[in-house]
């Protein structure tokens, strides 16, 4: 550290020392002014930012109100809801940024000014005081006369003591100056670096958010282009219709403009008519004609009217078969006609003679039609009361469509505990951690993002598109399962979960829960005796499975719903009948001697993860990872096989996805040079092959026999896997030739893989073609 003021010069109290002090004191005074100004500007920025967040939130609420108003337009409502949710998260990001700014700039620099600069000022006051005392002592010592020995000794003693005190205070002052000059660099840089990291996190979170929203915005943009084209087309059609109608001459037949006929809705005729009051005075209301002008219609053999469209129709004549209609020429008003029923009569007035004739003709026609109708009213009621088979079918079909259209949010929230945030308990969480399999509120999801993707991968349940295998993974775990692992010791430790809104408490709790894993019961036995017995039977079935595969290489085997053969005891997948097991797996005797399936009271986490992966036991896998299991742990007793390879042998697509989401290496191979893609190809697991290719598996890798996955699939004559491997290889070559490194590929490639993923997760029976074809021969 370079000293600002030399200690040796301090002892000399030379002019050079005084000049250095003067320069430092001026510099510190200016530094204090600059820091005070910066803190004030920071406070103003934070206040402005908070006001911006308030205004932005009001604007976002306005978007939500507009979305609710547009509930009859699904496209507008869905889009505005998604955008308002994204803006809400950006507001949260802004709030976090301003909080971190307040801690890094305002609080830190204010503390530096109040503490360190205050110490400097106190040291300066002491130095100035003792310096003045020293000067006085020197003057007094110089003024004492030689012959006054008593005063000479007294002045000398005072001068010695003052010099000693001066040196002590001066040294402390110089030390304070040097420490301050050194510390101010670190304090300023530390606060500014923290401030810049806060900005980095803010823009990174915003980039991630809008990267997830990008595909939806792109699709919406394409849809908007179509809507613009359709709107322009509709505008031209309406303008043409407007011009055509405008050119017509209605002067000769005004009645066509005054009434309407809607045969599709059973309306024979409708239009405005004046109605005479049915009271004893039989009057027409001349002062308020709108009180007697009504919208009449003839429908369902009835004459009805209504004042407003939303009003329930008032029935004037219930059955036109019992009525007659006639002209009325004996009253003063023109264009009147009367509809007479056995119980009452109704006097009506049209706006012209042609309209009166049209109404009279319409009533007469309706009367005649009512007599010709076949069947009585009771038969119609019977038909209405007994639903037809077609209606039942349509109801079932609509229900099926509803189930198929069920959102990711609805499916995931059906899992126990998922209706509230896993960490703070806030209701209706809209975010999820896909590698943990839990649901989160928006505030906890932001904290999970800050932990890093190696701890938690956050995704939106409403804004993101969910792959089928990922959605199944979420449904296999859930908040209750994970909390039983990560909060096992919570009650014993007396720790309470944070409440919604307590952000600092949430940050500390989530970091302790998932990063430090303080609440995991690390002393609990990882495997129970019942599971030991189950695993022993699994070992027996596995040995039988391999023996059966070797004994019946070309014998048809019954396949299950997942498109893979099963062992007769526990339903595990067996080797495809057309693949040589002896060329792919070690001798049976060596597997029986393996320690993987030996009983033990306690397992290390890696071995537990290894076993649970084969058994498709996701809760046990999550528990092993919570106990710090290495997701890429290799079993030295089983050819260096990994948990991911065991998941392939177990035949579960969801288990493979869980391991991959938690950092499993898709290209890690065993001692025979076979990775997960090799094993999935050998076993004919089409869904797993598709998953590994999507996750970046190297299909060019060869085993110790020099075989890559494609050559194995060709040898086994598995058409689906050969198609996937060749398509992935062709897509890879196209991207390399066009320089599109890191790009997913063209739309055809993505569509085909998306279809295979959907079949593997939702319709695995469609991937049975390989096994079914082999059974035919």
Detailed description of the structure:
By secondary structure, the chain is an alpha+beta fold. It has four domains: 7-223, Up-down Bundle (Substrate Binding Domain Of Dnak, Chain:A, Domain 2), CATH 1.20.1270; 267-372, Roll (PH-domain like); 408-515, Arf GTPase activating protein (Annexin V, domain 1, Orthogonal Bundle); 529-776, Serine Threonine Protein Phosphatase 5, Tetratricopeptide repeat (Alpha Horseshoe). The chain is 60% helix and 7% strand. It has 26 helices and eleven strands. It has helices spanning 7-12, 15-69, 74-143, 149-247, 255-258, 353-372, 377-385, 389-404, 408-413, 442-451, 468-476, 479-486, 490-493, 503-515, 529-551, 588-592, 605-615, 618-626, 643-650, 653-661, 676-683, 686-694, 709-716, 719-738, 747-762, 769-776, and strands spanning 259-262, 267-275, 293-299, 302-306, 314-317, 324-328, 336-340, 345-349, 431-433, 438-440, 458-460. The strands form two sheets. Strands 1, 2, 3, 4, 5, 6, 7 and 8 form an eight-stranded antiparallel beta sheet that branches. β4 and β5 form a beta hairpin.
């Amino acid at each position: 550290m370079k000293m600002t003021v030399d200690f040796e010069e301090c002892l000399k109290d030379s002019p050079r020392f005084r000049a250095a002090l003067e320069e430092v004191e001026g510099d510190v005074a200016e530094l204090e002014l600059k820091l005070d100004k910066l803190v004030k500007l920071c406070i103003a920025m934070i206040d402005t930012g908070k006001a911006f967040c308030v205004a932005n939130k009001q604007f976002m609420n306005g978007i939500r109100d507009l979305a609710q108003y547009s509930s009859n337009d699904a496209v507008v409502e869905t889009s505005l809801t998604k955008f308002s949710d994204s803006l809400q998260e950006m507001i949260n990001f802004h709030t976090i940024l301003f909080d971190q700014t307040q801690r890094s700039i305002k609080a830190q620099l204010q503390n530096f000014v109040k503490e360190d600069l205050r110490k400097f000022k106190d040291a300066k006051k002491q130095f100035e005081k003792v310096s003045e005392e020293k000067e006085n002592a020197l003057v007094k010592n110089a003024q004492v006369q030689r012959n006054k020995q008593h005063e000479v000794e007294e002045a000398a003693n005072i001068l010695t003591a003052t010099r000693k005190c001066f040196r002590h205070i001066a040294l402390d002052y110089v030390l304070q100056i040097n420490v301050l000059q050194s510390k101010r660099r670190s304090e300023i840089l530390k606060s500014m670096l923290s401030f810049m990291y806060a900005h980095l996190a803010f823009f990174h979170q915003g980039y991630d958010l809008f990267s997830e929203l990008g595909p939806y915005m792109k699709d919406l943009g394409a849809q908007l282009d179509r809507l613009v084209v359709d709107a322009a087309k509709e505008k031209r059609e309406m303008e043409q219709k407007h011009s055509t109608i405008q050119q017509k001459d209605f002067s000769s037949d005004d009645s066509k403009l005054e009434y309407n006929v809607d045969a599709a809705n059973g309306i024979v005729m409708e239009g405005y008519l004046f109605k005479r009051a049915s009271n004893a005075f039989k009057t027409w209301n001349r002062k308020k004609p709108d009180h007697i002008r009504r919208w009449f219609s003839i429908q369902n053999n009835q004459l009805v009217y209504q004042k407003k469209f939303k009003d329930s129709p008032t029935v004037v004549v219930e059955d036109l078969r019992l009525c007659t209609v006639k002209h009325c020429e004996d009253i003063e008003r023109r264009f009147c006609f009367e509809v007479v029923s056995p119980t009452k009569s109704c006097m009506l007035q049209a706006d012209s003679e042609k309209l009166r004739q049209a109404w009279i003709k319409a009533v007469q026609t309706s009367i005649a039609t009512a007599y010709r109708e076949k069947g009585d009213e009771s038969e119609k009621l019977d038909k209405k009361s007994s639903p037809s088979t077609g209606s039942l079918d349509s109801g079932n079909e609509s229900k099926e469509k509803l189930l198929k259209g069920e959102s990711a949010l609805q499916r995931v929230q059906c899992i126990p505990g998922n209706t509230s945030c896993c960490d703070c308990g806030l209701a209706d969480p809209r975010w999820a951690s896909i590698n943990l399999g839990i649901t989160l509120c928006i505030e906890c999801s932001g904290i999970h993002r800050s932990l890093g993707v190696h701890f938690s991968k956050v995704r939106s349940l409403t804004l993101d598109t969910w792959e089928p295998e990922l959605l199944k993974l979420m449904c296999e775990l859930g908040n209750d399962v994970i909390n039983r692992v990560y909060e096992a010791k919570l009650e014993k430790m007396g720790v309470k979960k944070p409440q919604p809104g307590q952000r600092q408490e949430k940050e500390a709790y989530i970091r302790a829960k998932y990063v430090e894993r303080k609440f995991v019961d690390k002393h609990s036995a990882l495997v129970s005796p019942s599971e030991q017995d189950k695993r022993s039977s699994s070992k027996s079935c596995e040995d039988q499975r391999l023996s059966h595969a070797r004994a019946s290489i070309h014998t048809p085997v019954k396949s299950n719903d997942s498109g893979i053969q099963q062992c007769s005891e526990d339903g595990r997948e067996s080797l495809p009948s057309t693949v040589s097991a002896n060329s792919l797996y070690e001798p049976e005797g060596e597997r029986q001697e393996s320690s993987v399936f030996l009983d033990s009271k306690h397992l290390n986490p890696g071995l537990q993860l290894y076993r649970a992966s084969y058994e498709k036991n996701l809760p046990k896998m999550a528990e092993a990872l919570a106990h710090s299991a290495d997701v890429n742990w290799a079993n030295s007793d089983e050819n260096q096989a990994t948990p991911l390879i065991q998941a392939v042998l177990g035949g579960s697509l969801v288990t493979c996805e869980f391991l991959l989401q938690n950092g499993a290496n898709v290209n890690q191979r065993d001692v025979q040079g076979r990775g997960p893609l090799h094993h999935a190809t050998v076993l004919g697991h089409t869904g797993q092959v598709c998953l590994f290719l999507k996750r970046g598996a190297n299909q060019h890798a060869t085993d110790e026999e020099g075989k890559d996955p494609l050559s194995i699939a060709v040898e086994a004559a598995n058409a689906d896997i050969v198609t996937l491997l060749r398509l992935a290889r062709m897509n890879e070559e196209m991207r390399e030739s066009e320089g599109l490194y890191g790009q997913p590929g063209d739309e055809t490639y993505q569509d085909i893989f998306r279809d295979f993923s959907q079949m593997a997760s939702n319709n695995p029976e469609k991937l049975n073609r390989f096994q079914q074809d082999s059974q035919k021969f």
